[in-house]
TrEMBL record:
This is Integrase. GO terms for molecular function: DNA binding. It comes from Sediminicurvatus halobius. The keyword Protein transport does not apply. Pfam families: Phage_integrase.
């Protein structure tokens, strides 16, 4: 069974260690964006420059930027770049690349080229035609990038294949908590014991920071105890007791000899553990699942069971309604919704709609 670990949050919450080779201004400027966003923007900008794009210089700019004389990125150059990339890239990726170029120009006190009418018009044109003009290879790649939702049946099959070893105890708690909470992978792997509050009714979990709460105001998610197995609360208690965890990270590496590490699991390890467990349980297409499958499966299963979409969205903490709707478009099985719709239609007096 593959396993991975990463750095834990060793410093107290709220502390930020400034590297010796950077100023406090540069440190906080860089942390205005999430780490994943910074990495994505850096890759986008490198690709733009590799295609002949110009980026203005500014104090503290990365050293990979070649010497350029342009005072700012010309809008027509960005528009040409988008047109060149349109057949192979999603609209979301194209918009992110525009945002990356805009952000860079803003740091150099230059007008963001993506705000120009020329670039906006090209983006609108790509959005209207991309579905018809995208290459077959691109369409196939876009389809396969979507994580397979982890449904109730998958979870039941996975749990049935687990034994009683320490890794099994951990992974049972990990799978049940990941699906029940519907959290993002970093929110789950970085949970600490003081984020949990157990009582007779169940469990309250504090998510201190997240993609939709970067400033760390925190949010609480509850999980009730249930008498029928499997119970996520009971599974988590069993893991904490078996691993003798009294403080620090909740989910940790377990080596082949059953030794429990001191650091939290790496974010990427959640996908590795899930795929390995599904493969061992004989679930077809195990390679199509990822850590995002927990979140997608929770949304689809609860909507299919007849829950109100607005309440499910509140649980999943999606700020964008369009993004949330993308999980459930084309969902074939919504029997309770159809039943309620037919009941309302039957009660409507003739002549009224």
């Amino acid at each position: 069974m593959s396993d991975a670990s990463g750095d834990s949050r060793s410093s107290a919450r709220g502390e930020l260690a400034v590297a010796a080779d950077e100023t406090p201004v540069a440190h906080y400027r860089d942390h205005a964006m999430a780490a994943n966003t910074r990495r994505a923007y850096a890759a986008d900008l490198r690709d733009f420059v590799a295609h002949g794009g110009f980026l203005p210089e500014w104090e503290g700019a990365p050293r990979w930027l070649p010497d350029q004389e342009a005072p700012g990125t010309p809008p027509e150059q960005l528009a040409a770049y988008l047109a060149e990339c349109a057949p192979a890239l999603r609209m979301a990726t194209l918009r992110r690349r525009v945002a990356a170029v805009n952000s860079w120009n803003a740091l150099a006190d230059c007008p963001p080229p993506g705000h120009s009418p020329a670039v906006r018009r090209v983006l609108r044109g790509i959005a209207r035609t991309q579905g018809r003009e995208a290459t077959p290879e691109a369409r196939a790649r876009w389809r396969t990038r979507q994580a397979q939702p982890l449904r109730h049946g998958h979870i039941a099959q996975l749990l049935a294949a687990l034994g009683g070893e320490l890794r099994d105890v951990r992974d049972r708690a990990l799978v049940l908590l990941a699906w029940t909470l519907g959290t993002r992978r970093s929110e789950l792997t970085r949970l600490r014991l003081d984020d949990l509050h157990f009582d007779a009714d169940g469990l309250s979990v504090r998510i201190d920071t997240s993609k939709t709460d970067p400033e760390g105001r925190g949010t609480y998610l509850g999980i009730p105890r249930i008498d029928a197995a499997p119970c996520a609360v009971a599974a988590l208690e069993a893991w904490l007791q078996a691993a003798a965890i009294h403080d620090g990270p909740v989910f940790r590496r377990v080596d082949r000899w059953g030794n429990v590490g001191a650091e939290c699991l790496h974010d990427d390890s959640l996908s590795v553990i899930l795929r390995d467990r599904l493969l061992a349980a004989g679930v077809p297409g195990a390679g199509a699942f990822s850590s995002h499958s927990f979140r997608a499966g929770l949304i689809i299963d609860t909507i299919a069971a007849g829950e109100i979409p607005a309440e499910v969205q509140e649980r999943s903490r999606h700020r964008s309604h369009n993004v949330f709707q993308s999980y459930i478009r084309g969902l074939p099985d919504r029997p309770q919704f159809v039943s309620r719709m037919l009941e309302r239609a039957a009660k409507t007096p003739p002549g009224r709609t």
